[in-house]
Specification:
This protein is α+β, with helices and mostly antiparallel strands. Helix content is 35%, strand content 31%. The chain folds into two domains: 2-129, Gcn5-related N-acetyltransferase (GNAT) (Aminopeptidase), CATH 3.40.630; 139-302, Aminopeptidase. The chain has nine helices and 13 strands. Strands 1, 2, 3, 4, 5, 6, 7, 8, 9, 10, 11, 12 and 13 form a 13-stranded mixed β-sheet that branches. A hairpin with a 2-residue loop joins β3 (59-69) and β4 (72-80).
Length: 310
């Protein structure tokens, strides 16, 4: 096996591997990953995507990549072809990539959220000094009979998403994830500017599907754009939605507003003939996991999130 820099590889060399990965996303998670892969291909064509490729007898059998954001590196993907030795190949790719990342003088944090289509990555990340968190990929069958969303209480108004809520929603996310485990996993949640970048990523870019403003809602006081809660939804495959963000301001938590927002989103998706809604949640966030289970969500897959501080 030979490991080379991803910037030395071509789209043609990786095309079969990328197709296999797209099939895994579709078959296991019901997610059309082609939009994200098209973006990856554009970076590959420009020789601008950092990472590694594993070749065996001239065939690409695995790859990994990362992106940089100021002081932070984000491991965006790790995939090994089915039928290959998953754990040792994945470990080699991780080791080579992390060696390159840690050589960057300004980098003081690395984040990873890796779907385990192949072998486990927990031990390899732990040996590299990562703190690990378990996350769950959950699914809800929208054909199931469910209650409709109740009216907002406490004088709050529920509105569909509008782009004027970008700044207020960034503030909401920053407040909601203060001293929260998800703020440990994703440091974008730790500042209003970071939360705004996160929002633009999930709303404007294809990595989390096509944003659905008609199935995204905010809770606010009449006459104010300050938000008490929000739920954002994207279409990740035909008739399949994904909750990309749901949060409630700390002072409003514990009053059923998260449930209200989720029911509003599911009602809107049913009205548009959607069949399924998925989401991800950190297992340590027991209240959220319990809410989703009571709403009828079930876990399809668990995966690992990791954080390495210098």
């Amino acid at each position: 096996m030979n490991i080379i820099d991803l910037r030395q590889a071509t789209v043609r060399q990786l095309e079969p591997l990328l197709l296999e990965e797209a099939h895994h996303w579709r078959d296991e998670l019901h997610w059309d990953y082609r939009g994200a892969l098209d973006l990856i291909k554009r970076f590959l064509d420009a020789h601008a995507l950092s990472g590694c490729v594993a070749f065996q007898n001239g065939t690409a059998i695995g790859y990994s990549f990362y992106v940089l954001e100021e002081h932070k590196g984000l491991i965006g993907g790790l995939y090994v072809s089915p039928g290959r030795e998953q754990e040792p190949i994945g470990r080699r790719l991780l080791d080579e990539m992390l060696f390159s990342m840690r050589s960057l003088p300004h980098l003081n944090r690395i984040e990873a959220q890796l779907m385990p289509f192949g072998g486990p990555v927990d031990e390899a990340l732990r040996e590299q000094g990562f703190r690990l968190y378990t996350r769950q990929f959950m699914s809800f069958d929208l054909a199931k009979k469910a209650e409709s969303a109740p009216s907002a209480n406490s004088g709050l108004r529920i509105d569909r998403w509008n782009d004027r809520y970008f700044e207020p929603c960034a503030k909401l996310i920053y407040l909601a994830y203060s001293n929260h485990v998800d703020g440990d996993i994703n440091d974008q949640y730790r500042s209003r500017n970071g939360a705004l970048r996160f929002l633009k990523n999930i709303i404007l870019l294809p990595g989390c599907g096509q944003f659905l403003p008609q199935a995204s809602f905010v809770l606010r006081h009449p006459g104010s754009d300050d938000l008490a809660g929000a739920v954002l939804t994207s279409e990740v495959s035909p008739a399949i939605g994904h909750t990309t963000q749901i949060c409630v301001q700390p002072g409003f938590q514990g009053h059923g507003l998260g449930r209200l927002l989720m029911l509003a989103a599911t009602d809107a998706l049913r009205a548009q003939k959607f069949k399924e809604l998925t989401l991800t949640v950190t297992s340590e966030n027991k209240a959220a996991v319990h809410l989703y289970e009571r709403l009828g969500f079930s876990t399809i897959k668990s995966f690992t999130a990791g954080v390495w501080p210098r």
